[in-house]
Amino acid sequence: MDEKISVIIPTLNEFEYLPGTVRQLLGAAKHPDQLELIVIDSGSSDGTIGSVESLPVTVFEKPEFALKKFASLNYGIHEAKGSILIFLDADTLLPYHFDVYVLKTLKQRKTVGGAFEFAFDPLNFWLRLIMLVNRFRYRMDGIYFGDQAIFCSRKVAIEVGGFPENELMDAAFFCRRLRKKGKMRLVRKHAVTSSRRFTENGCIRVFWFDFTMWLRFHFFRKTTAQRETYWRFNLDP
Questions:
Q1: I need a surface site. Which of 182, 194, 207, 225 has the fewest CB within 10 A?
Q2: Mean local confidence (pLDDT), 128-143
Q3: CB 26: neighbour CB atoms within 10 A?
């Protein structure tokens, strides 16, 4: 593999998940020597930064980005040295040889980016149902969410202006921007994300909130005003 891949991980109090995610990335990559792992921490107070001190990770401390995930992601875009970018949540694990799948996908005709199949861990009845609904949704609209490890070239990410400011649905809006440049493809290998957001806040409650946000996005409505509600309930770091 002759192309460097930069994995951009925004964090806020991710001590419990970040070290395991970094180790899993290094173990799952076919060419770990071609990975650049970037953590943009927005003011953690739980030892998140210290938890990866011994690991091959570049950490940027940006407390001014607190509750502004888009700012962390955009900062990562401009700091990355890799020609390919993967945007990864700190509690999401990628499939074995994910780097090969990313490069293979981006070589397909008219393709500018993609994402991985969505999966929860752990699962219960409601989470399994939500997972299946979500899979149906993105197969229909071709729009992926942040917990699916969206990827694209750094060049295209800069060309489209990165992630929009102050939108709760920043990943979805980013996908919409990318689709103006070409096709977004699904890698049918699982990106496994923690189901903590649902189990800690109520599966049905969180799903309904997410669904109403998707409706706003689908009908080209902004999701700026909803950011306060989202963060108030601490639904996502």
A1: 225
A2: 94
A3: 15
Tokens (6 digits) for 21: 């995610």
pTM listed for this prediction = 0.94
What average pLDDT does this structure show over 9-25? 97
Which region, left, alpha or beta, applies to residue 122 given φ > 0 means left and ψ of -120 to 50 means alpha? Answer: beta
pLDDT value at 236 more than 70 = no
pLDDT at 233: 59
Closest C-alpha to 105, from 45, 50, 151, 155: 151
79: number of Cβ within 10 Å: 14
CB atoms within 10 A of CB 50: 12
Q: What's at 99, amino acid-wise? A: D
Contact 21, 91 (CB under 8 A): yes
Question: Do β-strands 5-11 and 35-41 pair in parallel, antiparallel, or remain unpaired?
Answer: parallel
Per-residue model confidence as pLDDT tens digits over 51-110: 999 999 999 999 999 989 999 999 999 999 999 999 999 999 999 999 999 999 999 999
Coil vs helix vs strand at 199: helix
Give the count of beta carbons closer than 10 Å to the beta carbon of residue 131. Answer: 17
What is the rounded distance in angstroms from the CA atom of residue 14 to the CA atom of residue 46?
A: 8
- For residue 237, what pLDDT is reported? 37
Task: At 40, give phi and psi (nearest 5°).
Answer: -110, 105
Whether the Cβ atoms of residue 37 and residue 9 lie closer than 8 Å to each other: yes
Residue 140 identity: M
